[in-house]
Design goal:
Elements lengths: L2 E5 L13 H5 L3 E4 L6 H13 L11 H16 L4 E4 L8 H4 L7 E6 L7 H7 L9 E4 L5 H8 L4 E3 L21 E6 L6 H13 L4 E6 L14 E4 L4 H10 L2 E4 L8 H8 L4 E4 L4 H4 L5 E4 L4 H13 L2 H4 L2 H9 L3 H16 L4 H14 L4
Parallel strand pairs: 1-2, 1-3, 3-4, 4-5, 5-6, 7-8, 7-10, 8-9, 10-11, 11-12
Helix pairs in contact: 7-11, 9-13, 14-15
Amino acid sequence: MRITCLVKRWEHHTASGGYDRLATVVGARVIKRNKLSGITSLVGRKIWKSWTNTDAYLLDYQFEDWLAEQRLLIRCLVDPPDVVHVLYGDEQLDLLLRWRSMLRCRLVVTFHLPAEQVIRRFEYFQPEEINGIDAAIVLATSEITRFEQWFGADKVVYVPHGIDTTQFRPADRRSAHDKLKLLFVGDHLRDWDVAHRVIDEVHRNHLDVHFDVVTRSDLFPFFTGCSNITLYCQVTEPELIELYRGADALFLPVENATANNSVLEALACGTPVIGTDVGGMPDYITPDCGWLIPKADATSAFELVKQLCVHRELARSRREKARAQALKFEWQRIAERVSVVYSAVQAGQSPSAAVKEFELAAVRSPAT
């Protein structure tokens, strides 16, 4: 089966991270947005911006995304694949829906944002255009019901995010350290208030805890006055992996989430996760490999950190299960499920029913 994937990357993605890894594993032909420079691109971007309103319903759709969609359409007219898979439907899909009749193949789209952030698009801006999508992949079970209201139950499929468990893996030996070390990574939908309040409370109570924070430099002010932290930005992948390996736990309070790269990267490195019980976090974090705290509850988060500080074995006891949990999401396993979606839509069948049948067969024959 011939697959073409429309992909994109962000600067905060590590070399081995990001959802675009799926395209490589399924053996797809890749079309991605290219960063443009020069006067010609500047003029083209200004002209495009003057007549488009994509900012009203797309998160990060740029002139380069529009050009990438054009290239994909032209290639599909000349040499159509069996399936086109748009890997980031929230940020790079517009032209293909408007000109769907020119796309002479099936269209699969993965959506990363929580449903509450795409309501305006699906219900006010593109309620008809989304009918051209043959399968909508969501990354959290919490998103299924709402997406089924928009696409229909037969088209919506939950397939989790993947992780490179070869690159992200535990150290041969963890270094010993006196302080409890907690790591905070990322910026999207993070609960900055809870993070700051917990770090401050730890400091006021003189707990032997140190926080490493990896985020954008313009977000450093969220941690102003926090003396028990080290701030990092633009770290390399090997440096980030060492931070994961050296941490007793990933501390990641969020306002909402579907899948989260930082959660999967930490688990793959054998580091348990302190997350928020919201959205898709329970799909990836279980009591065996981490802890889920109530949303916006800094008090509960602090009490947990305090407990971990006193009973250090609590975090150590979850390391092995953290790694085992990550192995469930290795890319090859995810690609198998996505390939089931491809085969179903190509055959004109329900991708939802096909994936359920595949999962039932896997339960009956776990060795496969």
